[in-house]
Amino acid sequence: MTTRTGTTAKRSAPSAPTAAHQTGSVAAQTSTEAGGAAEAGGAAASGGIPSASLDRAIARARDNLLALQLEDGHWRGELEADSVLESEYILLLHFLGRASEDRVRKMARRIRSLQLPEGGWAIYHGGPPEVSASVKAYFVLKLLGDDPSSPHMAKARDMILDLGGIEATNTYTKIYLAIFGQYDWEKCPAVPPEMVLLPGWFYFNLNEMSSWSRGIFVPLSIIWAYKPRCPVPDHAHIPELYVPGTGGRTVSDGIGPWTRGWHYLFHSADKGIKLLERGRFRVLRRKALRAAEEWTRRRLDMSDGLGAIFPAIVNTVFAFRCLGYSPEDPAISSQLEALEKLEVDMGDALKIQPALSPVWDTAQAAGILAATGLDPDHEALHRAAEWLLSKEVRHPGDWQRKNGHEEVSGWYFEYANEFYPDCDDTAMVLTALERLRITEPDLKARVDAARRRALRWLLSMQNPDGGWAAFDRGCDKELLKLIPFADHNAMIDPSWEDITGRVLETLSLEGFDGRDVAVEKAIAFLDSRQCEDGTWYGRWGCNYIYGTWLALDGIRRFGVDMEQERYQRAARWLRSRQNPDGGWGETLRSYEEPELKGMGDSTAAQTAWALLGLFASGDYASDSVRRGVDFLLRMQLEDGSWDDEHWTGTGFPKVFYLKYHLYDDYFPLLALATYRQAIAS
C-alpha cells in the first residue's frame, strides 16, 4: 500500500526567465516579466512593481493552493527526509523475513539515487556526506547484494572510512548494527528500561525527556534489554567499515570543565549499568520491561503509530517482536500499517516520509488564503474549518504530567496523535480559525468553543521563562543532553523563539494586548534571546531567517516601537543577507556553523520569511523589499506555484532535516499578499 500526497507535480518553468535573474543583477521590472506580467501601462504598486503583476501573481498562487485542497477539506504536502528512513525500513523488513518484497527493491533504488558523487550520503539536499546515513546505506545495499567492489560501493566505503567509520556513528546506528551482528552490543550506549520506573521527583526521569525522545527510547530500551540478533548472509558483513585504532567518540575539546565533569559522570553510569548487566544483577528488569511495554501499548490508541513518527514506530515493531508478539498481533500490524501510510510511490522507486503533516499544512493553507483576501464564506474555508475541528484533541496526553491544567484541547501535527498536541500547531490552527471568520451559526459556535478551550490550553503551556516549547512545559534540563544515548541532539524541549513568536501572533488575534502578563513575559523572553547581530534562532525552520521573522512579527503586534535599535538591527541583518538575485536563502549547515547564518542559495520560502520579517520591522519600501518581491514574481511558475530545490525544515538540528513540499506554495503567497495590502493602504 502506498500513499500519495495532496500535491501536484510542478512541471512548468518560471515564466519569462530574464537575463537579470541568471546573472544575479537587479533589472527594472518590465511589462513582460515573470510571475504574471502586468499589461503595458499598468499602475505601479511600489518601486516600479506594477500592481497588476502583484494581483495576477496572488490570484494564481491562490488558485494553485485551492486546487491542492483535498475533497474532505484538508491539505497535505509531501514531507521529505533523507535516506536513513529507507535504510531502516529495509532493515526492519529483513528482521521480519520480508526482504524479498518489491518495496525493498524500490527503496534500494531510492537509496542508490541519493548517493553523492564523492561516495557518501547526506542528511539534506546539498549537504555533505554524513557518517551514520552512509553506514546504514552501505550496509543495506551490501545486504541486498550490491557488489562491494563495484565503483559506487568502493567510493562509499572510502568516504565512510574518511568520516571515521562505524565508531563515528550515532547511538541509533550502533544499536541497529548490533541487531544484525555488525557491532558489539556491549559497546552500545545503555538504554535501560528501568528508566521508565524512575519517579517524577528524580532529576532524570522519563518526563524530563522531550516527547519524541520518549517515543523513541521507551521501545528502544526494550530492544537494548533483549539484545536481539538477526542473522545476515556472510556476504553482508561490513568489517571493512572499521577504522583501525578507533575506540568511539571522545569529549569535545570545546566544552568547559563543569560540563566535562557531568559528561564523564554520565559515561561512568553507563559503564556501571553494563557491569550490572554482565553480572545478571537485574532486580527490577522484569517489572521495568512490563512497564515499558504497557507505556508503549497505551500510546498506540488514537494514533497513526507510536507518536505518529517513523523512528518510534519502527522501534515499536522491533521491541514487540523481542517481547514475543506475532507479526499478526494488532500491536505490530497497526504499526506496519502506519509505516505503509508513510510510503510515497515514485513508480520505479519508493521513498518514506518521517511523518504526515495534514494539520500543519491545512492550518497554514487555510489561514493564509483567508489572510490574502479570499472570501471568508468560501466553501473551501468552511470545509477546512470542519476538518480542523475534527482533529482537536479531546483525550488526556503526556503533556499533563508537567502541567496542572485539566482541560484537554490543542491540535497535533498528523492525522491522529491524540497523546501529543503541540503548541506550534495549536497556535497555527487558532490563527487560521480566527482568520476564517466563519459566519454559519452552528459551525461558528463550534469553532468559538474550540478556540476558547485551545486558547486556555495554550496559555497553560507557557514556560516560566515566558516562552513556549513544542510539546511540553518545563522540559529544559540541559544536563540531560550529555547522556550517552542523547546524541540525536533533541533530548529536551525548552522554550523556542520561533514558537513563541507564533504564539504571540495568535494572542494578538485573540484580543490580547501588551499589558497582558503572558504577552509581557513572552516579549521579554524574545528580547533576552536575541543575538548580538539582531537575529533569533529558528528551531523548527531554517534557521535565523525563520526565527527572526517570527520573533519580529510576534513582537510588533503589541504596540512595541519597532524603530528601536534592537529591532532595526534585525532588519539590517536581513537586508545584509539578501542575495544578488534578490532572494534570500540559508543553508541547513548554519545549525552547525553559525557563521553561515542567513547564507545560502535563494529559495521562495526563505525569501518570503525574510520579506515578512522586514514588513514586521516596518520596512515596506526599501530597495531590498522591492528586489525580494521582484524575485518572487520572477520565480513563480506558470501554475501559480514556486519550486524550491533546497530544504528549509528542521527535525533535529544537526541530525535530521526536512523538506515541506507546500512551503513554497503558501509562504510566498502570504508575503506577496501582505505587501500588496500594505502598499494599498
Structural account:
It is built from 23 helices and seven strands. Strand 4 and strand 5 form a beta hairpin. It has a domain of 265 residues: Glycosyltransferase. It has 681 residues and is mainly alpha-helical. Strands 3-7-6 form a three-stranded antiparallel beta sheet, with no helix packed on it. Strands 1-2 form a two-stranded antiparallel sheet. Helix 13 packs antiparallel against helix 14. The N terminus is likely disordered. The protein is globular. The longest helix is centred in the middle third of the chain and has 22 residues. 46% of the residues lie in helices and 3% in strands.
Reconstruct the topology from this structure:
Blueprint: H1 19-23, E1 44-46, E2 49-50, H2 51-67, E3 79-80, H3 84-95, H4 102-113, H5 131-143, H6 151-162, H7 171-179, H8 211-226, H9 257-278, H10 285-298, H11 310-322, H12 330-341, E4 343-345, E5 350-352, H13 358-371, H14 379-389, H15 423-436, H16 441-460, H17 497-509, H18 517-529, H19 544-556, H20 565-576, H21 604-616, H22 623-635, E6 649-652, E7 656-660, H23 663-680
Antiparallel strand pairs: 1-2, 3-7, 4-5, 6-7
Helix pairs in contact: 2-23, 3-4, 3-5, 3-11, 5-6, 8-10, 8-11, 11-12, 13-14, 13-15, 13-23, 14-16, 15-16, 15-17, 17-18, 17-19, 19-21, 21-22, 21-23
